[in-house]
């Protein structure tokens, strides 16, 4: 919720530097961040609070490698909902723990979901859950030459 007028103006170079630094190391201390961007700690703290308040920073997360947990297969599943099944499909996607991301999209498909599972057999089981409500097209991820990153700020 934007209780401030902070992001009504364009984010400046310092705001972007704070966001980039925290994206690279979300556990960085305020002091370390202040030294990195050559500001005082209180000023950095205030900027971070304003960025959070404005909705520019939504939270902090731990990134994991699914393979370390035995989850060796990832895939994108495109789903085209049967008539009247969009809401049911949306709920099913949200309730499926193997679905780590899902977006409602324009075009031929209704949703694109990223699924992370142990193996192809488990992938088939997950996809089979959606078949009564949508036609599906699955693409197993072979590699990720561009890891998830910030858009150009």
What does this protein look like?
By secondary structure, the chain is of the alpha+beta class. The chain folds into 2 domains: 6-53, Winged helix-like DNA-binding domain superfamily/Winged helix DNA-binding domain (Arc Repressor Mutant, subunit A); 66-140, Alpha-Beta Plaits. Helix content is 35%, strand content 19%. It has 5 helices and 4 strands, in the order αααβαββαβ. The protein has helices at 13-24, 30-37, 41-53, 86-94, 120-130, and strands at residues 73-81, 99-104, 111-117, 134-140. A 4-stranded antiparallel β-sheet has the order 2-3-1-4. α2 crosses α3 (41-53). The radius of gyration is 20 Å and the shape is elongated. The protein starts with 12 loop residues before the first helix and ends in a 13-residue tail after the last strand. 16% of the residues are buried.
How do the helices and strands line up, and which of them pair or pack?
Elements: H1 13-24, H2 30-37, H3 41-53, E1 73-81, H4 86-94, E2 99-104, E3 111-117, H5 120-130, E4 134-140
Antiparallel strand pairs: 1-3, 1-4, 2-3
Helix pairs in contact: 2-3
């Amino acid at each position: 919720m934007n209780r401030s007028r902070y992001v009504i103006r364009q984010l400046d170079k310092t705001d972007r530097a704070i966001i980039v630094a925290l994206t690279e190391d979300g556990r960085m201390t305020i002091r370390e961040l202040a030294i990195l961007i050559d500001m005082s700690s209180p000023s950095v703290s205030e900027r971070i609070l304003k960025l959070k308040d404005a909705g520019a920073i939504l939270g902090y997360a731990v990134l994991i490698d699914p393979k370390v947990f035995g989850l060796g297969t990832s895939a994108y599943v495109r789903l085209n909902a049967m008539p009247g099944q969009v809401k049911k499909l949306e709920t099913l996607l949200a309730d499926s723990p193997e679905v780590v991301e899902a977006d409602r999209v324009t075009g031929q498909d209704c949703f694109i979901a990223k699924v992370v599972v142990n193996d192809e057999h488990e992938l088939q089981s997950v996809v089979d859950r959606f078949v009564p409500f949508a036609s599906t097209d699955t693409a197993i991820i072979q590699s990720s030459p561009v890891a998830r990153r910030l858009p150009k700020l």
